[in-house]
Amino acid sequence: MRAAVIHASRDVRVEEVPDPVIRRPTDAVVRVLLSCICGTDLWAYRGMASFQPGQRTGHEFVGVVEDVGADVMGYAAGDLVVVPFVWSDGICGYCAEGLTTSCEQGGFWGTRGSDGGQGEAVRVPYADGTLVRLPGEAASDRRLLTALLTLSDVLGTGHHGALGAGVGPGTTVAVVGDGAVGLCGVLAAKRLGAERIIALGRHPSRTAIATAFGATDIVPERGETAVEAVRELTRGRGVPAVIEAVGTEQSMWTALQIARDGGSIGCVGVPHGSDTGLDLSDVFERNIALRGGVAPVRTYIPQLLPDVLDGVIDPSPVFDLSIGLEGIPGGYQAMDERTALKVLISY
User: Fold this and answer.
1) Over the stretch 46-60, which tens digit does the pLDDT of each residue have?
2) Total domain count for the chain?
3) Quick count: other Cβ atoms within 10 Å of Cβ 120?
4) For residue 287, what are the domain limits?
5) I want to staple 180 with a disulfide (CB 3.0 to 4.6 A). Which of 83, 212, 307, 342 is the partner?
6) d(CA 83, CA 62)
7) Shared domain check, 126 and 90
8) Residues 48, 90 share a domain
9) What is the tens place of the pLDDT at every residue in 187-216?
């Protein structure tokens, strides 16, 4: 079969790789219908994250179950499924608590020794604990299937950031970052009842999506100027809830500066570099709460799925470039050059 493989910085290729097969009785093999390129995929592409040459890429996909192991009870060939970006057994203590990303048997797609989501098929360990069944008719509705793909990562990650920030009915929230996760954070905050949503982003095409998703204010500035703009919008106090969806020193610093005393920051941007941009004495003295981390999207999918199926929320606009399997190298380049927000891959 064909799949994307990374060989060096800015060197992703589509190559022939072995077909996935059932190795353990808890496995399933899923034939991929849609996958995508994530902002976190770019860190290896840019040489900012370690990888082994020949390693597979990608971690977000929906598809159809093709085969299952003898111990798989909940799924059968022909089932349409969405697959979280971390597989999990569903039965360990962490899974029981809903923290599926800390599963004792879990792992991330595209890491060494695992299949990547950017390929024609994937072997899924612990299928019963990992997969989530979708209505079969969704396979023939391209817009809906595209929206459902976001459940594998970015929608659940935005939701995690909103929960970490303490978003609820009537809340004022600021979202730092206009990537797919930040935009899904806007959508999640709106879904949770936020009254005012301040989106910090400087790309008009992206802030237009933020507005469509429920943002009430757009702040295109950066740094000190952005902080001043947010404080002006909030009568000098700052916001009680901040979703940080970038992970850089500047974005973390901005999140802290725009949070009001006693506020909460939901951190879901993957940290880049050793300096977090946080002054812990400032966090302590101002009673700022920091929450977030790797989003346990497997736990959130059952909560979010009904609203996506019913059209209450539609995250599909975060995909602004569609390609086929052979176009994956160009898709990485487009995201690296910021000419694409998030790239959808069809098979």
Assistant:
1) 998 889 999 999 999
2) 2
3) 16
4) 157-292
5) 342
6) 6
7) yes
8) yes
9) 999 999 999 999 999 999 999 999 999 999
